[in-house]
Specification:
Blueprint: H1 6-18, H2 23-33, H3 38-47, E1 58-63, E2 66-72, E3 77-82, H4 89-104, E4 108-113, H5 114-131
Parallel strand pairs: 3-4
Antiparallel strand pairs: 1-2, 2-3
């Protein structure tokens, strides 16, 4: 006879939401939460507390070997904010590989430039909303 074990349910949920992130990646995510950019602070103020379509977003969320700027587990959606370091060839190649790996895990990644958030946050929210 199987009995419901809340600890088993919690462990399964955490394994799924973090996709096997190791302690180093989890620590990196914690540190990144303490060092938010201006664009991240703006977007977080608009996404937190289920403000967009009632969906829960996490910021600087560890998933597998990556840290996502914003992650909605329910929708399997990552929102990334890119600054100047993503503009070079090396940054673009890394982002493409990362997006491909996450897509293989069933996760969609959408990207915005920091300036888009700062100058047109309503437009960015509409685009995010289309994925929810």
């Amino acid at each position: 006879m199987n009995h419901y074990n809340p600890a088993d349910t919690t462990a399964k949920y955490l394994a799924d939401i973090y996709q096997g992130a190791d302690p180093c990646t989890l620590q990196n995510a914690r540190e990144l939460r303490r060092q938010s950019t201006k664009a991240e602070k703006i977007l977080w103020s608009l996404l937190r507390n289920r403000q967009l379509k009632g969906k829960k977003f996490r910021r600087q969320h560890a998933i597998a070997r990556y840290v996502a700027d914003f992650y909605c587990h329910e929708c399997k959606l990552i929102v990334e904010l890119d600054g100047h370091h993503h503009a070079g060839e090396e940054g673009r190649e890394y982002d493409e590989l990362r997006t491909k790996v996450l897509a293989e895990m069933g996760i969609t990644v959408i990207r915005f430039w920091n300036d888009e958030i700062i100058k047109s946050s309503e437009k960015v929210l509409r685009k995010i909303s289309n994925y929810l």
